[in-house]
């Protein structure tokens, strides 16, 4: 059982720095082999988790929720009031979304989500976070230079628009509700969901393409 | 701790690299590590202890090695610390001890079972407590000026600053103590800061930064 001994962990990191093979694939293979031999993991279950997050659970879930919010004002109200219950109407409540909060973009507000201290992300509704979300450049700059970050993603924000950055420092997770693009009255929910990008639900995308 | 992980507002990390942003996993080992983290037995390890162990990775490794590699390294360190894995076993690449009881063998789970399991992973961290919240929505608060050497979720960039209570979320597990194995619930708030309060170059911007902060990180502002 853990003794919560940070000194011991720091020593372990020093040791592993010098003694583990440098290739990540070999490190993870060693970890999996040891865990399997000790009965701490079943490799077939790992396969199923990978399949679940490759094939089933990903940002298309979030896009469906956003599209529903665009066409159904009552659902949108529920989503903004109690997001975990609202996404559970789709069966999407799951890993890291029990304390989900939805923040809405408007003409005068743009929302951006980051985790400066680690890499918190609403897994069951957006899947695996993109690498940039977990890297130092985004984590360091999103709170300090959000407009510069957005510009790198091709998003220009006018001075009249307030940028709100949400730093996920607790177990709450944030999902941005982007604005419905203009001239999309002819699209059904499925067609609307196809317009919703993963980045727009993190906040690094803003103006979604309408029907051409 | 004032570690390498506390990146908010740090400068010099350059432009954002969006390479491969539409791939779920870039290499197979990343998926393996992700899966291990979802389903491996972790004796008595809390999420906050695991996060602290990740923060303790050497800065050069933390910044330079691939993201999921840091998960594997964190896993190794937590198992070593808990006495469930040894340096000798890692060097040998196989289990050398039979004297520990790791429990019943784990049965394989299929995709449908995993989808159910994901739903079961909607863990809540809040609870009712007897203590009433110290702050109300709209109230001005300041943050503690200093952190401490353990795990904490008050980033350096938001210390000693004045903000406003935006929302109260009830009482959530206090991470600083959860990382030491103590589960105590404490009132949690979203606190909003003007960008100009945090950054000198933001003086003429009306942008805002929201953080979720526990009561122990906050002090009343007397006006």
3D architecture notes:
The complex is a heterodimer of chains A (212) and B (223). With 212 residues, chain A is mostly helical. Chain A has 2 domains: 6-41; 58-202, Alpha-Beta Complex (Nitrile Hydratase, Chain A). In chain A, 46% of the residues lie in helices and 10% in strands. Chain A has helices at 6-19, 24-37, 43-56, 59-71, 73-81, 83-88, 123-126, 136-141, 146-152, 189-193, 198-202; strands spanning 100-104, 109-114, 162-167, 173-177. In chain A, the strands form 2 sheets. A two-stranded parallel ribbon of chain A has the order 1-4. Chain A has a two-stranded parallel ribbon with strand order 2-3. In chain A, helix 4 crosses helix 5 (73-81). The longest helix of chain A has 14 residues, at 6-19. With 223 residues, chain B is an alpha+beta fold. Chain B folds into 2 domains: 28-120, Cyclin A, domain 1 (Orthogonal Bundle), CATH 1.10.472.20; 126-220, Roll (SH3 type barrels), CATH 2.30.30. Chain B is 30% helix and 17% strand. Chain B has 8 helices and 6 strands; from the N terminus they run H-H-H-H-H-H-E-E-E-H-E-H-E-E. In chain B, strands 1, 2, 3, 4, 5 and 6 form a 6-stranded antiparallel β-sheet that branches. Chain B is globular. At the A-B interface, helix 1, helix 2, helix 3, helix 8 and helix 9 of A face helix 1, helix 2, helix 4, helix 5 and helix 6 of B.
């Amino acid at each position: 059982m853990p003794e919560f001994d940070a000194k011991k962990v720091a020593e372990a990191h020093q040791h592993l720095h010098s003694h583990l093979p440098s290739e990540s694939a070999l490190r993870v293979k060693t970890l999996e082999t040891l865990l399997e031999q000790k009965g701490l993991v079943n490799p077939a279950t790992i396969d199923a988790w990978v399949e679940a997050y490759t094939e089933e659970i990903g940002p298309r879930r979030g896009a469906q929720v956003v599209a529903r919010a665009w066409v159904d004002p009552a659902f949108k109200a529920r989503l903004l009031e109690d997001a975990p219950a609202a996404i559970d109407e789709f069966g999407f409540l799951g890993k890291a979304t029990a304390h989900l909060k939805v923040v809405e973009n408007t003409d005068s507000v743009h929302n951006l989500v980051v985790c400066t201290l680690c890499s918190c992300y609403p897994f069951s509704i957006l899947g695996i976070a993109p690498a940039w979300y977990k890297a130092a450049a985004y984590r360091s700059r999103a709170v300090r230079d959000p407009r510069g970050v957005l510009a790198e993603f091709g998003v220009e924000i006018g001075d009249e628009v307030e940028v709100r950055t949400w730093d996920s420092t607790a177990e709450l997770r944030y999902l941005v509700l982007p604005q419905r693009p203009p001239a999309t009255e002819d699209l059904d929910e499925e067609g609307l969901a196809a317009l919703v990008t993963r980045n727009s639900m993190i906040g690094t995308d803003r103006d979604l393409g309408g029907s051409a | 701790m004032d570690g390498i992980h506390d990146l908010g507002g740090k400068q010099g990390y350059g432009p954002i690299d969006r390479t491969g942003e539409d791939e779920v996993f870039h290499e197979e080992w990343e998926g393996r590590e992700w899966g291990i983290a979802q389903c491996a037995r972790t004796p008595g390890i809390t999420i906050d202890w695991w996060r602290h162990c990740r923060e303790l990775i050497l800065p050069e490794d933390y910044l330079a090695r691939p993201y999921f590699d840091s998960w594997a390294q964190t896993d190794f360190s937590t198992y070593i610390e808990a006495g469930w894995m040894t340096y000798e076993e890692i060097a040998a690449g196989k289990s050398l001890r039979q004297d520990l009881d790791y429990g019943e063998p784990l049965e394989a789970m299929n995709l449908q079972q995993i989808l159910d399991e994901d739903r079961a992973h909607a863990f809540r961290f809040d609870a009712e407590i007897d203590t009433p919240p110290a702050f109300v929505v709209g109230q001005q608060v300041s943050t503690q000026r200093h952190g401490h050497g353990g795990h904490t979720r008050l980033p350096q960039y938001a210390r000693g600053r004045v903000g406003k209570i935006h929302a109260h979320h009830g009482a959530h597990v206090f991470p600083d103590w959860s990382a030491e194995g103590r589960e105590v619930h404490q009132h949690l708030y979203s606190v909003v800061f003007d960008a100009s309060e945090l950054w000198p170059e933001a003086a003429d911007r009306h942008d805002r930064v929201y953080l979720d902060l526990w009561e122990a990180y906050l002090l009343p502002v007397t006006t």
